[in-house]
Amino acid sequence: MTSLKFRSPSQHSIRISPLQRCHARPRTIISFSMKDSRENDVSHFSLTSQSNPPLNPLVVVGSANADIYAEITRLPKEGETISAKSGQTLAGGKGANQAACGGKLSYPTYFVGQIGDDAHGKLISEALQDRGVRLDHLKVLSNAPTGHAVVMLQADGQNSIIIVGGANMNCWPQSLSEKDLEMVHKAGVLLLQREIPDSVNIHVAKAAKSAGVPVIMDAGGMEGDIPKELLMFVDILSPNETELSRLTGLPTANFEQISAAAKKCHEMGVKQVLVKLGDKGSALFLEGEKPILQPIISAPKVIDTTGAGDTFTAAFAVALVEGKSKKECLKFAAAAASLCVQVKGAIPSMPDRKAVLGLLQAA
Questions:
Q1: How many helices and strands in the chain, by DSSP H and E?
Q2: Whole-model pTM?
Q3: Which residues belong to the active site?
Q4: 191 annotated ligand binder
């Protein structure tokens, strides 16, 4: 097993302000403004920290897939073979998607994951590097292929996906290296998903919790219950409606039912539940408080919803580590997701910070 090491991405011009969470050493954050002011152009960033301490990174531990697209007019029926209008292979996977989003949003982002020593692995590593993601903790396996997904994309932008785990689900060490764990300890936020073994997620979530690092768990990925041992280390659980129903065993057909399901998650030990509601927006349920609702920021045309949920979760995480209010985090994430669905592909569709801030000004 080897580890990829690439050149560091170029430094961005950013404005930074103190991170609110206390740590032993100085921490800084990138900030954004949603004010529409000609005197404060939010698309302009400048480095203003006097001490220039390093930013606490977004650390994503998760999956990396080659997404094999087939554009179809409808899903095939049982036993039926249909022809696709076109097809191509793009980099994806929930972990890689979220890392790419963090990189595109100009926030220091590290990806901890596994790929095979093959063409698909090269496709993913190049896509992540091109988007500014640090790959010092990406392992290349000689004994397992890169994971891949078959994405059946319909004309309205909706998709159905079949995942083959490959390196994402195999050959993980019993314990991550000291180098990997040190990066987790230094994180501003840890992002997890369910396309790698639960045992790995438990290991890194526990390490993050011990260092006071917030843990956001995207519920997307494998079916089945999330282990209680994992939930006890999760600060924010982020499912969509379907995942929320599956995790709680409750219906989620309307907002009242979604609220009841979120309450059950609270009873399971998760204090904050960030529910992605598709074209109905999103809602953050904080235990003992009134839900915070965020409508969608409409896209002129929906091309492909693949990666939209990952974009939303990662953008929320970036805004959170930058010290924004929960309401601001939701709006920033909604803008990023709106831009994402207007481009085909998962990683190729991740918006940059300037585009997100521009949309927020116009919204």
A1: 10, 16
A2: 0.82
A3: 310
A4: no
